[in-house]
Amino acid sequence: MSGAAGLVTMLDRIGAGDRDSLKMLYEATSAKLFGVILRIVIERGEAEDVLQEVYITVWRKAAEFDATRASPITWMVTIARNRAIDRLRAKGSRPTTSLDEAAEVRDAAPAADTMIDTANDAKRVDAALGTLDPKHAAIIRSAYFEGLTYEALSDREGVPVGTLKSWVRRGLMRMRTVLEA
Amino acid sequence: MTELDDMPDGSDAALALDFALGALDGAAMRAAELRLRRDPVFARDVAHWQDQLSPLVDEVRGVSPPRQVWTSVDRELFRAAPARAAAARTQSVWATLAIWRGLAFAASGVAAVTLGLLVSRPGAAPVVVPAVAPAGKLLAASMASTDSAKAVLITATYDPSRGAVILTPAAADSSRGLTPELWVIVGKNPPRSLGVIDLKDPQAHRIPGALRAQMTGGATLAISLEPAGGSPTGQPTGPVVAAGKLTAI
């Protein structure tokens, strides 16, 4: 069983109460989700708590997963990001990395995660981001990966919130144009 | 293709993008989550952006979590002893409900409707709701508010052909800033969330495809009050304010 179709099958079975499928799903996706969570919740123990919450949520909400509306990995990443952002916001502030560090992570080796079929899409998104002003692309990555609000990004970058929003929206609209071309 | 001019601050298009990106602050994010569950157009916009952004995740290096995390998940969900705390919390709410389910069954004298039942105020009289009874396999449940012995909080009519529950609030919203969440309970199974709802206006609430099989005569619908955005655990965490059985009408 591999790829997105395999994940869909696992989620279907989990929705029907199959524990073994939850274990399989965990083995296939936990490293990726842990990586995503660690970008947002830096403290490792807390990130582990969040990861645990994510799979408990997946177990309980698997029956709500609708493969016609989202890819399985998008659905799970959304849960992971939301949980991690909740944790982050509940704590108040966090140390923020600079854009230079964010750029370093971008260059890190991609995960050898064969269960997740987004490698080609990722190259396309990366290429699309590459067409943007590097600063705008970095802001989009920061918002997405670090769970920072516009306000927090605005403080960190010393740019008015309105300007920042406009960069992000312009950037994403442009990305979409490139991706749909 | 949405143009930038179509995406002013505060517009739905901008909100969908901001939400998918995760850049909203707490209150705005909660409001958007609620909206997401009730507004299919908004949900589609959000899904579109989430889909577009999700390949970015490939830039994140996978990090193997310690074995302990799976052990905790397994223990929390499937092992009896440590799950006791969670079960006890749920039971305090749902054991009460089971009693009242029985009462409602005993008291239902009108074929077309069930009786509203008062979970936390056993002394109050159930309220019979006259059914507007269309033909077909519609199922209805009437639920009385625990805040007011007289008022039916909400009438739920499930229409299998639409896969939606039509919720008709009959009393003022008394959720006091908490988010009402709708649940279905079949037999002795744990409650399954049908999503957060609004007690202010009549609405059609879509039931997720995979849960439609649960919407059968005899299943119990219940409403609990949850933190903004809905139960964080997937099980009811707040007080049950209303419940009633689905009955064919």
State the gist of this model.
The complex is a heterodimer of chains A (181) and B (249). With 181 residues, chain A is mainly α.
Describe the protein's topology.
The complex is a heterodimer of chains A (181) and B (249).
Chain A (H helix, E strand, L loop, with lengths): L2 H13 L3 H22 L3 H18 L10 H20 L7 H8 L12 H12 L3 H13 L3 H8 L3 H20 L1
Chain B lengths: L11 H10 L4 H13 L1 H14 L13 H12 L1 H28 L31 E6 L7 E8 L4 E6 L9 E7 L6 E5 L6 E4 L13 E7 L13 E6 L1 E2 L1
Antiparallel strand pairs in B: 1-2, 1-9, 2-3, 3-6, 4-5, 4-7, 7-8
Helix pairs in contact in B: 1-3, 2-3, 4-5
Would you give an account of this structure?
The complex is a heterodimer of chains A (181) and B (249). Chain A has 181 residues and is mainly alpha-helical. Chain A has helices at 3-15, 19-40, 44-61, 72-91, 99-106, 119-130, 134-146, 150-157, 161-180. Chain A contains nine helices and no strands. In chain A, helix 1 (3-15) packs across helix 2. The relative contact order of chain A is 0.11. Chain B contains five helices and nine strands, in the order αααααβββββββββ. Chain B has helices at residues 12-21, 26-38, 40-53, 67-78, 80-107; strands at 139-144, 152-159, 164-169, 179-185, 192-196, 203-206, 220-226, 240-245, 247-248. The interface between A and B is large, with 77 and 56 residues.
